[in-house]
């Protein structure tokens, strides 16, 4: 109960933030929330033991689907975001039947290859997508009202957090964990592995597609280079790992830390700030392999266990 | 054992038939494809070696290739060393870079799982690219050597001669690697470690040393690849980047530890790419060939594994 209360208070604070902060801080926050959604959705998939490299691909397809339905078919921006999520869910459902049979690096590489295939397809149908030079909207969503855009981004981030928490609190968690830990045992105890895998795959892909759609609407611009950039794959992964994988708050904390760090570094050293960012990632991987949140939780458990053994 | 040899032969036969068919139908695509595919194999080999034996997915692979291009450029620009000659110092420079990198970082993530390895090499790649951008800026550079632009006329087109060096060097390195893995003590130990690291450790192989050597040798090969491709490649911070993915794709297609498969797969994909590029109006689709073939091969392999 206490956790839910904290969550509600934090949400209320986040919702009311635009009334107190400046435009710049809000912009930083929006970027962080976008990456946080990607990081968390990737982490949810990872909990099944499947290392997906498809984030950037689904993100990009969602972005394009939203922009095209908006500017070519006259959908309203919000409707186009829902359409993008639905389309990506459909694509994930179809592809899932083939790729979810794969395991380990074969799954990883195939999803990465899919990202590339998506981007090449989009580059080569210029009539619809604008080809290599991309597509610019005449008007961004909500006429560029940053408060409303912020609320939109916040809502997708909150939805992702809630889905992630629901997954960790319900039966799904046991199925997912058993698939990751030992698939054969999971199978023999009667879990329909494929059903759970494809369910999680569809949900997380749809979230990534919706995030891409919102991102594209926010900037009013898509191009193969920027929309399918591997940044949308690797930075969320780095955030989840820096915070600590297999938990909701790990990804959230990682996104906050790396997000603010990169923004701050950008200010103090405009050239080469990515070096420090890279060094941070390397050091955390080398010295805190469980991530920041994971390490703290481990320490707390160790202390609790110690206290128990003393009494 | 017999069966696996039989399968390699069948694959090889299919490969030869494919090349002959293309040679009859579209000889130019075959030539361009072999040149391009040779380059893919040359660059894919070190990645496959590291992945197959050390078990590390090196996301910074292409960026180290870029670093090699820049070092080759320095050799040419400051000391007037021909790129082909500088491949020797570059081998050693990269060998030592490999040793350093392994000792300060890679060895700590060997047992940490693929994810941490990926992120570590991603961090390294990020640092590397930023360093390159700070030192050399993003201005593209190139190296001019007269022999690199010789060509022979075929019909009303001309074919570059220099590019044939890629498959030749790739085959030479492959042969040397096979000799190393079969004939030397270290190589035999490396093969054993690649197949079963725990077993190798039990029978007294110093796996850490094997990993270190294999990693460094693979890095040396990156140095050679960079200097070989330098005369025909523009040098800018992202010039090696696209090869990382393609090398991954090759390694996954050939199957882990199958070095010969890299050559066959590389040339097949190179030729397939060249065929698509030769169709007017569809040249932009050539990358789909690469990744499409990759996906199909992985899926077929997976189904075969599930059935058996």
Can you describe what's shown?
Chain A contains 15 helices and 2 strands. Chain A is an all-alpha fold. The model of chain A has no long low-confidence stretch (mean pLDDT 86). Helix content of chain B is 77%, strand content 3%. Chain B has a two-stranded antiparallel sheet with strand order 1-2. Residues 1-6 of chain B have low confidence and may be disordered. At the A-B interface, helix 5, helix 12 and helix 14 of A face helix 4, helix 5, helix 10 and helix 12 of B.
Question: What's the structural blueprint in terms of helices and strands?
Answer:
The complex is a heterodimer of chains A (311) and B (308).
Chain A: H1 2-16, H2 23-46, H3 55-73, H4 77-99, H5 104-123, H6 126-129, E1 135-136, H7 146-169, H8 171-181, H9 183-188, H10 193-219, E2 221-222, H11 224-227, H12 231-243, H13 248-268, H14 273-287, H15 291-310
Antiparallel strand pairs in A: 1-2
Helix pairs in contact in A: 2-7, 2-10, 2-12, 2-13, 3-4, 3-5, 3-10, 4-10, 7-10, 12-13, 12-15, 13-14, 13-15
Chain B: H1 2-25, H2 27-54, H3 61-79, H4 83-109, H5 114-136, E1 151-154, E2 157-160, H6 165-183, H7 185-195, H8 197-202, H9 207-229, H10 241-254, H11 259-278, H12 286-307
Antiparallel strand pairs in B: 1-2
Helix pairs in contact in B: 1-2, 1-11, 2-6, 2-9, 2-10, 2-11, 3-4, 3-5, 3-9, 3-10, 4-9, 6-7, 6-9, 6-11, 7-9, 10-11, 10-12, 11-12
């Amino acid at each position: 109960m206490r956790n839910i209360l904290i969550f509600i208070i934090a949400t209320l604070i986040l919702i009311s933030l635009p009334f107190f902060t400046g435009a710049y801080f809000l912009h930083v926050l929006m970027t962080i929330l976008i990456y946080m959604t990607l990081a968390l959705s990737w982490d949810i998939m990872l909990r099944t033991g499947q290392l997906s490299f498809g984030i950037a691909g689904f993100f990009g397809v969602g972005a394009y689907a939203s922009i095209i339905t908006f500017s070519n078919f006259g959908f309203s921006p919000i409707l186009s975001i829902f359409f993008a999520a639905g389309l990506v869910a459909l694509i994930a459902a179809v592809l899932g039947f083939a790729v979810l049979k794969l395991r380990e690096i074969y799954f990883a590489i195939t999803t990465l290859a899919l990202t590339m295939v998506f981007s090449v397809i989009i580059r080569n149908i210029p009539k619809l997508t604008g080809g290599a030079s991309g597509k610019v909207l005449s008007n961004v969503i909500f006429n560029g009202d940053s408060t409303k855009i912020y609320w939109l981004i916040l809502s997708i981030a909150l939805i992702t957090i809630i889905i992630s928490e629901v997954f960790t609190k319900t039966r799904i968690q046991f199925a997912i964990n058993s698939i990751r830990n030992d698939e054969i045992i999971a199978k023999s105890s009667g879990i329909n592995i494929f059903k759970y895998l494809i369910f999680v795959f569809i949900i997380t892909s749809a979230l990534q597609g919706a995030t891409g759609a919102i991102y594209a609407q926010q900037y009013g611009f898509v191009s193969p280079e920027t929309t399918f950039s591997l940044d949308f794959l690797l930075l969320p992964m780095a955030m989840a790992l820096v915070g600590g994988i297999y938990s909701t708050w790990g990804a959230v904390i990682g996104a906050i830390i790396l997000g603010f760090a990169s923004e701050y570094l950008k200010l103090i050293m405009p050239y080469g700030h990515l070096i420090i960012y890279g060094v941070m990632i390397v050091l955390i991987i080398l010295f805190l392999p469980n991530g920041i949140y994971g390490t703290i939780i481990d320490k707390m458990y160790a202390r609790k266990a110690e206290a128990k053994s003393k009494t | 054992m017999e069966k696996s040899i039989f399968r390699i032969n069948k694959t090889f036969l299919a490969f030869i038939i494919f090349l002959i068919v293309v040679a009859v139908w579209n000889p130019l695509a075959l030539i361009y494809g072999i040149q391009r595919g040779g380059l893919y194999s040359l660059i894919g080999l070190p990645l496959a070696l590291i992945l197959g034996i050390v078990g590390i997915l090196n996301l910074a692979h292409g960026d180290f290739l870029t670093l090699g291009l820049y070092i080759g450029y320095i050799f040419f620009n400051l000391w007037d060393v021909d790129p082909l000659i500088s491949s020797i110092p570059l081998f050693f420079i990269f060998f030592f870079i490999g040793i350093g990198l392994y000792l300060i970082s890679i060895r700590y993530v060997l047992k940490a799982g693929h994810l941490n390895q990926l992120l570590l090499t991603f961090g390294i790649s990020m640092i590397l690219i930023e360093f390159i951008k700070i030192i050399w800026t993003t201005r593209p550079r190139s190296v001019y050597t007269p022999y690199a632009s010789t060509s022979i006329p075929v019909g009303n087109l001309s074919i570059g001669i220099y590019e044939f060096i890629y498959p030749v060097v790739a085959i030479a390195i492959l042969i040397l690697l096979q000799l190393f893995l079969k004939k030397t003590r270290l190589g035999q130990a490396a093969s054993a470690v690649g197949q079963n690291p725990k077993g190798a450790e039990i029978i007294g192989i110093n796996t850490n040393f094997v990993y270190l050597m294999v990693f460094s040798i693979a890095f040396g090969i990156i140095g050679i690849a960079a200097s070989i491709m330098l005369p025909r490649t523009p040098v800018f911070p992202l010039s090696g980047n696209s090869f990382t993915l393609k090398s991954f794709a090759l390694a996954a297609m050939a199957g882990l530890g199958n070095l010969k498969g890299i050559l066959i797969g590389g040339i097949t994909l190179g030729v397939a790419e060249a065929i698509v590029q030769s169709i007017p109006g569809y040249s932009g689709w050539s990358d789909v060939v690469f990744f499409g073939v990759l996906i199909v091969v992985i899926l077929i392999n997976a189904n075969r594994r599930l059935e058996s």
